[in-house]
């Protein structure tokens, strides 16, 4: 617009636009790989083209439990409603076959010679109400069975049996949905990020896990798997290749006592898939580390499982988790606000293989870290010393400004007398 008005030459505008485009390099981000396990533990997997749908009906109870809540509530309501309508039709047919619906029998029913199968059932509405009373055992008292019709007694027994089966299945389904194991896993938390740092002279992959409830997880165990796309020497491509990696646990049973948040450690050794990965290679790796925590819920006795995963972008090299457990007035307190906080520490940037081949790299890294720490302490002490000197000088200046100067008084006789006020 300015170039059109001849305020700025057009050649200058084009040159400036070209320079701005050259200054900003166009970087194309690497397409993000789909996660196999989400951070909340859900499996990112879609089942398609399943032809044998009848297998789900063979295990109808598990199918009902796996359904969504809205579908379960619809099935729960329709199962009772359909059974009431079915047996209402049967009661209406029994009354119709016996002649209870005939208006001429209404006056005869008042005499002692006529006895209906079910009293006060003269329409489909009354038969539907009687069906509800039989199945849910309400019994208002207006309608009741008589011993006139054996068929009606058979229908009564059949409806009671079917009603008990429906109650057992549907109530059990509702109970199992409310007491599912993954509900307990909602209070089992993992750190948002994992770290790689030196522990006991070895590079270690670490993450933090905790339980928000006071009720414990019995026999809790942690497993770590690496999921990556691999190709065999024969040329076979395995899109989801799972490899178990060991967890450093001094207990032989591999069970953890999850009474407080713990830092789970995996030593990167020759058995580890991370053995040849350095800090610069980590961002280029197409891998995903899946963490699985299993245990038995103390209150219900149901086995639960909590899952999460860490991709390369969520692993911090050269960091360590800050401590969150402190002792306050004889009680161990856990500060969950610092659950995922990390601090940067000295760690070699090379791979674990290079660290095993050249142990001097770790010593040099620690020495550099110690020197940098000492230099920072010296700078901090010098800054404190300079600040203290400045404060003392400023205080001296303020004190000197408060000193009152001497004043001379001249008497009438001409003599001078000096007095200090």
TrEMBL record:
Catalytic reaction annotation: K(+)(in) = K(+)(out)
Gene Ontology, cellular component aspect: monoatomic ion channel complex; plasma membrane
Top-rank lineage group of the source organism: Eukaryota
Alphabetized UniProt keyword annotations: Ion channel, Ion transport, Membrane, Phosphoprotein, Potassium, Potassium transport, Transmembrane, Transmembrane helix, Transport, Voltage-gated channel
Residues spanning the membrane: 73-94, 151-175
Gene3D superfamilies (alphabetical): 1.10.287.70, G protein-activated inward rectifier potassium channel 1
Main localization, broad class: membrane
InterPro entries: Ig_E-set, IRK_C, K_chnl_inward-rec_Kir, K_chnl_inward-rec_Kir6.1, K_chnl_inward-rec_Kir_cyto, Kir_TM
Membrane topology classification: Multi-pass membrane protein
Bias-annotated ranges (Low complexity): 384-397
Location in or out of the cell: Membrane
Swiss-Prot/TrEMBL GO biological process terms: potassium ion import across plasma membrane; regulation of monoatomic ion transmembrane transport
SUPFAM superfamilies: E set domains, Voltage-gated potassium channels
Molecular functions (GO terms): ATP-activated inward rectifier potassium channel activity
Pfam families recorded: IRK, IRK_C
Residues carrying the site annotation Role in the control of polyamine-mediated channel gating and in the blocking by intracellular magnesium: 167
Region (Disordered): 372-397
Annotated signal peptide: none
Domain Potassium channel inwardly rectifying transmembrane: 37-180
Record's keyword annotation contains Transmembrane helix: yes
Domain Inward rectifier potassium channel C-terminal: 188-358
Protein family per UniProt: Belongs to the inward rectifier-type potassium channel (TC 1.A.2.1) family.
Protein name in UniProt: KCNJ8 protein
Organism per entry: Grantiella picta
Lineage: Eukaryota, Metazoa, Chordata, Craniata, Vertebrata
Gene behind this protein: Kcnj8
């Amino acid at each position: 617009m300015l170039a059109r008005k001849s305020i700025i030459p057009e050649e200058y505008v084009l040159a400036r636009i070209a320079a701005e485009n050259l200054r900003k390099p166009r970087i194309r981000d690497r397409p993000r790989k789909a996660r196999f396990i989400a951070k909340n533990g859900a499996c990112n997997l879609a089942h398609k083209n399943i032809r044998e749908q009848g297998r789900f009906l063979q295990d109808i109870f598990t199918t009902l439990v796996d359904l969504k809540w809205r579908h379960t509530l619809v099935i729960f309501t329709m199962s009772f409603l359909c059974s009431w309508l079915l047996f209402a039709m049967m009661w209406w047919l029994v009354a119709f076959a016996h002649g209870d619906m005939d208006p001429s029998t209404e006056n005869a029913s008042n005499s002692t010679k006529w006895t209906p199968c079910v009293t006060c059932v003269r329409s489909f509405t009354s038969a539907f109400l009687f069906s509800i009373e039989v199945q849910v055992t309400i019994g208002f008292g207006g309608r009741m069975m008589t011993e006139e019709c054996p068929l009606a007694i058979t229908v009564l027994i059949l409806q009671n049996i079917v009603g008990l089966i429906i109650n057992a299945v549907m109530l059990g389904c509702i109970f199992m949905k409310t007491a599912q194991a993954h509900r307990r896993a909602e209070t089992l938390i993992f750190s948002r990020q994992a770290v790689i740092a030196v522990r006991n002279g070895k590079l270690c992959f670490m993450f933090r896990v905790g339980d928000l409830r006071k009720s414990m997880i019995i026999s809790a165990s942690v497993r770590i798997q690496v999921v990556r796309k691999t190709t065999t020497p024969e040329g076979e491509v395995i899109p989801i290749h799972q490899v178990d990696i060991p967890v450093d646990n001094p207990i032989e049973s591999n069970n953890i006592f999850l009474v407080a948040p713990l830092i789970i450690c995996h030593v990167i050794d020759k058995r580890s898939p991370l053995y040849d990965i350095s800090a610069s290679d980590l961002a280029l790796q197409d891998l995903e580390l899946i963490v699985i925590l299993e245990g038995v819920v103390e209150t219900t006795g149901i086995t639960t499982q909590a899952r999460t995963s860490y991709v390369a972008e969520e692993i911090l090299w050269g960091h360590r988790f800050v401590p969150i457990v402190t002792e306050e007035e004889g009680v161990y307190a856990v500060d969950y606000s610092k659950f995922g906080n990390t601090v940067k520490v000295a760690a070699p940037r090379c791979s674990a293989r290079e660290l095993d081949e050249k142990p001097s790299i770790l010593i040099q890294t620690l020495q550099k870290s110690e020197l940098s720490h000492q230099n920072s302490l010296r700078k901090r002490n010098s800054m404190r010393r300079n600040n203290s000197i400045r404060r003392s000088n400023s205080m001296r200046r303020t004190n000197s400004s408060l000193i009152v100067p001497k004043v001379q008084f001249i008497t009438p006789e001409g003599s001078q007398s000096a007095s200090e006020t």
